[in-house]
């Protein structure tokens, strides 16, 4: 009798375990390129590796950096809409051709520093979330910056006007228009192609954040860094509505809270990395997170800061609005009511 009861108890226990195993969800996740460096390695990957622990939910994350998947970073919204992945570390500028509304997070000159970028993010979040849900059936979970995007050149550079006649790697149409305005020739390239392109002379300069440049060894093939911020390279986390709707309301709250903790942490970490990487690239101390190189650290000209600031109203918003309003009729008007109001830009 005792044996029968013990067997019954074991059967119940195994039944509960089996049910629990069936209850576990695994989300397929696209991460940032591993080549981009510290944020991906030290913040993003650990978060998804420990997803169940970080969210407090029976959910695992099958996480892969995008440069290990054979998927272009310009195709992320499409693969989510097709249901191939559940959560994506969304490269904002790179996906703006598919959804121009995204670029409202990161127009050239609108957010050249962390404080301004946070204002843009807070003001624009709901507008962008609603658009992504409507067009791509994905929900925005948060966003964070790689940091100020600046010039790295293999030719001497003292100011923006020196770009005249130079070929400059860019990653979105807004930045391309700005580079044209100061006399440079914009060349769109994926991040992973830039080191070789600089080495071979396909481009004379590239634009990225100092930490990403350090992680990908751009200073091996460049000589000057010009720490004038054009954009902040905001990136976002998004989840498909199909995956989102599998969760109960209280589970959704836990997921949102976990992503807020992650993105808030990255905002702080990004700022620390930026200053440290600038030091490392120029061979200065303190340099604690990167490799030391010997780039010439060019002093930023006040008139160039003014040029970037003026570019928002003169170049960025009009160029973007023309494209975005064709895809989304209320695009620029929504931006002006939210971000424009927060930054006093119309």
Automatic annotation (TrEMBL):
Keyword Signal included in the entry's annotation: yes
InterPro entries xrefs: DctP_fam (IPR018389), TRAP_DctP_sf (IPR038404)
Pfam families: DctP (PF03480)
Keywords from the UniProt entry: Signal
Signal peptide residue numbers: 1-21
Protein name: TRAP transporter substrate-binding protein
Species: Aquincola tertiaricarbonis
